[in-house]
User: What shape does this take?
Amino acid sequence: MDYEEGDRVKVEKSGVEYEGIVMPSTTGHIIVKMVSGYNAGIEPEGATVTVVQKKTDMEEAAKKAVNEVKPKKGLPKVSILSTGGTIASKIDYRTGAVTSQFSADDILQAIPELTEIANFSGKAIYNILSENMKADYWQELARAVVEEIKNGADGIIVAHGTDTMMYSAAALSFMIDTPVPIVFVGSQRSADRPSSDNAMNAICAAKVAVSDIAEVTVVMHSESSDDKCSIHRATKVRKMHTSRRDAFRSINSEPIGYVDYSTGEITTGLSYVKRNERELALMDSIEPKCALVKFTPGSSPDILGFFIDAGYKGIVIEGTGLGHVSTDWIPQIERATEQKIPVIITSQCLNGRICDRVYDTGRDILKAGAIEGEDMLPEVALVKMMWTLGQIQNYDDAVDILKQDIRCEINERSLE
Ligand code: ASP
Assistant: This one.
């Protein structure tokens, strides 16, 4: 039985056949990851193992296929910047876990259809799961994106983990004036699973990267079917499900549009910034010491006090309903704003708009100097706070910017 971890094998035992990739085993069983994504553990005694394809041959074949692709005349140039996440991951044969270890080239090897849409170049900026992203990584990513645009890219794809994609996309949206599309894409299910969304999301992202939508967007499955992907505006999108492929939703806005997967056609419903309308500019200063604090019933105002005393420069509160906290939190809000620490109030409802003029606690929050976050998502308000305080040190000027709509993060009128 001449096989090793990573090989594709067929195991036959008692008339049952299992085909899949050999995984590490600590029990002496033959562990095979099947196409369904599930593992089968087979007692070796009486089993026949046939190697279908060696791991090394599979890797070689994929590499060869991509290396043979010559740049095609007339196709736009798209840069894929990979930061990691499931879209850029593969099974780690040592642990059996999904880890981020693909480079941008590996994405092309895995999804050769991409090479019909554009001529790609790529860089792996990071190889991390997105829970490990940090504000200074957003800056580094923004600089890399700008560099690619300066070098002639007609569009950018950022391959990113889905968990914190909305933060990174919002951050780049504030940091870059872009003349070309900057498209974030990820996948909820890794490439080794038949229900993986990685190829469809990446292909739709590539379509958007060569379109005239010159904004920072997130392109992911629209529905549980494979019909279309939504093109979400970076400042209005949120991951709303732990595992579904259609986890990403625009909140308080429709998506900018959709990509039909079978035809590649893009339809848009909202107005958007068009290609070359904006001149390239990078505003990458960020103040990382900002906090997003969730108010819960009965929680101590000391929580807010902690951030003030710890030298935080800005605070976003995720309040209840129309934008409330309990009465005993209000003196701490006042203490913050007196110390020139801006405070934005957003809502745990996510859907809808802050209106602190209806109830007493709301009016008192406003008197204490808090800024109504309008229909902004709490995370977007946090990223906007970090970006604004990175740009502007004067408190009154910063508060002015925080109240203004910069990247369609505030709609004039919310949807009902
Ligand atoms: N935890 C992973 C990440 O955000 C999940 C994913 O990539 O979808 O990187």
About this structure: Residues 36 and 189 are 12 Å apart (CA to CA). The longest strand covers residues 119-128. The chain has three domains: 8-57, 69-282, 290-403. The radius of gyration is 24 Å.
